[in-house]
Amino acid sequence: MPLARLVAASLLLLATATAVQAQEDYPFTGEWECDGAPFVFTSTVYSIGDDSYDVREVQEGSDGSYSLFLSDEVYITLSDITADTLDFSSSESDRTLSCRRY
Question: Which of 17, 42, 60, 62 has the highest count of CB atoms within 10 angstroms of its CB?
């Protein structure tokens, strides 16, 4: 019986690690400099400086952009994503920021 529990626990850890890796495997994930400010994007958190916001949902657009929903009314859009650059816009602003990966 202990071997069966060990195998089950190992499978659970592997499944959890795979799910976390899959969540983090977006082209926008990482640390960015956007118009002079430090930004961090993951599938679960968006940070600018010392302020962090929980990401409730990530949706991929048909054009390769991603919308990160922070609440029912507020979202950010990351577009024109390459290995080293992306554009950031917020539903709360008309401004688009150009970002470079650190």
Answer: 42
Dihedral, 79, 80, 86, 88 alpha carbons, nearest 10: -30
**Residues with Cβ < 8 Å from 59, sequence gap 6 or more?**
66, 67, 69
pLDDT (tens digit per residue) in 46-55? 999 999 999 9
Three-state DSSP at 51 gives strand
Per-residue confidence at 2, pLDDT binned at 50, 70, 90?
low
85: tokens are 């650059």
Rounded CA-CA distance 80/85 in Å is 8
